[in-house]
Amino acid sequence: MLFNSIDFLIFFPVVFAIYWMLKNSVSKQNILLLISSYVFYGWWDWRFLSLIVYSSFIDYIAGLKIENSTTKKQRKRWLLLSLVSNLGLLAIFKYYNFFADSFSQAMSTLGWQVDDLTLNIILPVGISFYTFQTLSYTIDIYRKNIKPTQNLVVFFTYVSLFPQLVAGPIERASNLIPQIKNKRVFKSSQFKDGIFQIIVGLFRKIVIADNLAIYVDTVYGSPELHNGSSLLLATVFYAFQIYYDFSGYSDIAIGTAKLLGFNFNQNFNFPYFSKSITEFWRRWHISLSSWLKDYLYISLGGNRKGIKITYRNLLITMLIGGLWHGSSWNFVIWGAIHGVALAIEKYTFSKLKIKNFNVLGTLWTFLVVLLSWVFFRAQDLSSATLIMKRIFSFDYTMPFIGNINTVTIALLMLALGLSFDVFIFRRKVALEYYGSTIKTSSLAVFVSIVIILLALFYSTSNNFIYFQF
Amino acid sequence: MKSTLKLVLIILLLTYGIDKVVYLVLNKISDNVMTGQSIGKLNQFLSQKDSINLIAFGTSRSNHHIDVKKLNISSYNMGMDGSSIAYAATLIKLLPKGKDQTVILNIDPNKLFIDDYDGSDIKGLITKYNRNRTVKEDIKDINQDNVLQYFLWSLDYNGKALGIVKNYISPKYDYESYYGFDPLEVSETQAEQFKNTLQIESTYDCDKKKNINPLVWKYINVIKVFCEENNKTLIMLTTPTYEPVCKVQYVKLAEKLKSIEVTYKDYSGFFTQNKDLTYWKDKTHLSSKGATVFTEFLKQDLQKNNLIKPNN
Predict the structure, then answer these.
(1) Which residues of chain A are within 8 Å of residue B159 when distances are taken between CB atoms?
(2) Given phi > 0 = left and psi -120 to 50 = alpha, else beta, which region is A435?
(3) Does residue A391 lie within any of the structural domains?
């Protein structure tokens, strides 16, 4: 079920009403959340619910077994079971075809013909998100950072809670499980925060991102037909499309959770205002970047084992981060660009004894990120190469405009979105808590005006970009 | 909880109120807009449809290829970018009953044989959803309406508000001399792009598209019946394409139309012997020069077949 669908517009108020009617019973509320989360997911394809149940069950058992193990060896074994089960699912559903295809190509380069090994596999929506979420649970128990929950419904609800099920934020058990266990109290301030963030998220997604997508899809759909300036413009548009698409999704998810009394962690914090790539990753998809840092970078040794190992760790972390997004060489290159940029920054900052590049840093950050988006968005490696060649030919003639009306709407809405971002950024109040700082009447006016803007300028909804991961 | 309910109630009431104000203001503005594709062209068609003798409908290919004034001095080209047969069918049904008129409809077999055609082009008439019963019924008939439109009337202007305001403040052209035909002047960049596209080999899977989409066929019959009952001469035709493909579809369509006694003229291959690229903007659209040559031939051919009278 999509957040920006009529189905969800009916589904959520029904769940919301029943949920708060059951406010005196946490266990009943949790059962309702679990059932509604499965309905939410099953709306897309009920068969893949079995994977969520399987993953939840394995990690529920593994968590308890790790805690009850008396020896380190036993603890390790149960952790290994969790890792193999979860990463195994990912390997089959997400990466099998990529590795099989890469293997065939490598063999053919060596002169050996191998039969087509790829399979017709559907990628289950959200698998990368809930897999990482459940993994963090068992790893945290193994590291003795948290205690496992005995309550099956609580754990299954943690894994499948519908606001964050299909595209995050990747919530840690340490934050979410206590909230699921304990009684939720309805607070009007939290409701205001939630409503504000949902409406901002909808605007970001269906007005800004989806209008920009029309131009981006046209140009990136056939890059061979377009000149360098069109490809550059489309890449700039894509930089904002993906930001508003995914941050918009996160806003709706976090806002929806607030209406149910949950506080999710912030997932985006104005990343394009960053003065370094390091800062960018503290502001972009925060739940993933902190996951990679805590469970991969630090596990590899982080920066504790010398400068060379630190660079290696940065690169490995970003390469795997790239692969997490999708099973193609484009994502690997995307990760590599970020890994190299992070290493360059680490080296420069330590030599010059500075923390960022100040004003030039914003430009450097945006350019690196922009360059990397070409690989992220292009359909394949050859398209990405062609696009890069044309952009760097610096032959900037008149760009393709397409439908002038559509491009004008996209630009105007982007300007509105960016102005809003600057406004909130300067206020030094997180978007997540801004709604409750506004008077009720002002909030009502704001929400009503945005609803009218949505009606007037929404674009035919594309799927959220991060659903494919 | 009380303050929250109050907030929700205020939001609902305010949204309802602002929505109606915005809708009425946009109605007022749009009624005075006679230029632009957003609504001006539709308004102009609605204001002229009862008095003109010949109207061309269809996609952008009709819009850019048929210079209707050369066919009949009292005419209008209602071809529209992104539209298809559902859009045209509803507009044809809005023509005056009983008045002798010639209706030219450009149809492209390659598009009529698509399985997943759902008539969504009818949404091009959405600005009239809450203002014209025929439009509303036709949109609802094929489930292309949005359930929220019952409450949020501003949705009628989705994606069009900006164009309407822009054309209200600064009209694009002198609409009094405009008759719907938009010849395509090709820039050097576009000509270059067209050359580039010719380097790419196109692939078509004609075998997968063997039957006319049932919804398309329904519309063809609706148009045919309306024209028969209301004194209209209906001519369906296919204007030139650079590279006509899946010719079997053309043959099949011609046979089907013949079986229900609808006049159909296939001009898709008109330029296939002449590879002068200046006749084209892209593979499906003629340039202004190409449209002039084609319209001249079309006029002679239709006159020769007594489908239109000599212009006066």
Answers:
(1) 405-406, 409, 456-457, 459
(2) alpha
(3) yes
Using the 3D structure, point to which of A183, A204, A237 is the last residue of a domain.
A183
Q: What is the mean pLDDT of residues B47-59?
A: 94
For residue A264, is it within any domain?
A: yes
| Encoded tokens for A299 | 């596990």
Domain count of chain A?
2
- Those residues whose C-beta lies under 8 Å from the C-beta of residue B155, and which sit 6 or more positions away, are A455, B126, B146, B148, B149
Q: What is the mean pLDDT of chain A?
A: 91
Interface test with chain B among A383, A456, A458, A460, by most B beta carbons within 10 Å: A456
Contact A406 B159 (CB under 8 A): yes
Q: Are residues A231 and A364 in the same domain?
A: yes
pLDDT band at A186 (very low <50, low <70, confident <90, very high): very high
A173 and A195 belong to one structural domain? no
Alpha helices by DSSP H, listed for A326-403, are: 329-352, 358-377, 381-391
Whole-number pLDDT of residue A19: 97
Any chain B CB within 8 A of the CB of A393? no
Contacts of A451 in chain B (CB under 8 A): 11, 15, 19, 152
Q: How far is A244 from chain B (nearest CA, A)?
A: 19
Q: Which residues of B touch A405 (CB under 8 A)?
A: 37-38, 159, 162-163
- The answer to whether residue A445 is domain-embedded is yes
Instruction: Give A121-131 pLDDT, tens digit per residue.
Output: 777 888 899 99
Shared domain check, A220 and A163:
no
**Complete domains list, chain B, with CATH:** 2-304 (3.40.50.1110)
Domain that holds residue A400: 189-275+357-468
Interface contact A455-B1, CB threshold 8 A = no
The answer to whether A223 and A282 are in contact (CB under 8 A) is: no
Q: Are residues A160 and A220 in the same domain?
A: no
Q: Kindly state the tokens that stand for B261.
A: 């006694």
Across the interface, whether the CB atoms of A191 and B157 are under 8 A apart is answered no
Rounded to whole angstroms, the Cα distance separating B72 from B89 reads 22
Q: pLDDT tens across A39-93, in order?
A: 999 998 888 899 999 999 999 999 999 999 989 999 999 999 999 999 998 888 8
Residue A454 lies in a domain: yes
* pTM of structure: 0.86
Active site (catalytic) residues of A: 325
| A459 pLDDT more than 90 | no
Q: Which residue has the higher pLDDT, B181 or B195?
A: B181
Q: Which token pair is A60?
A: 């529920």
